[in-house]
Amino acid sequence: MLISIIVAECHSSSEAGRFGFHKTLARIKHNFLWPRMHSTVKEFLCNYDICQRNKSDYMRPTGLLQPLPIPTKIWTKISMDFVEGFPPSNGNTVIIVVVDRLTRYAHFVPLRHPFIAVTVAKAFAAECFQAS
């Protein structure tokens, strides 16, 4: 129990980051020693879920980018992006860019930072789908 706490602390603490096997083992050896330390650390790292999921060996290779299909009606498919880094204008520092993928007609919606999904949705609905 104590050994697994030591290994976890030396491998994945906020100060340690997530080191590989050799760095984790070296950090542990600096202060501790126990029988079969090498195999204990190796076993811990092999079973550490976060590292195994994010390991590049287990990631599928990415394929080539595929073009998006062309929509058949306007405003059925849109693209959105956030542009930040502007000086404040009426308190707004972010612009939401909404583009209809068929006509390429764009809406530029100002927004204050910080924002949440509800704020973005309300601004999107108010600016892009106003009642005429």
From TrEMBL:
Residue intervals of the Integrase zinc-binding domain: 6-56
Domain of life: Eukaryota
InterPro entries linked to this entry: Gypsy_RT_Integrase-like (IPR052160), Integrase_H2C2 (IPR041588), RNaseH-like_sf (IPR012337), RNaseH_sf (IPR036397)
GO molecular function, one term: nucleic acid binding
PANTHER family (alphabetical): ENDONUCLEASE-RELATED
Protein name, as recorded: Integrase zinc-binding domain-containing protein
Organism encoding this protein: Acer negundo (Box elder)
Source lineage: Eukaryota, Viridiplantae, Streptophyta, Embryophyta, Tracheophyta
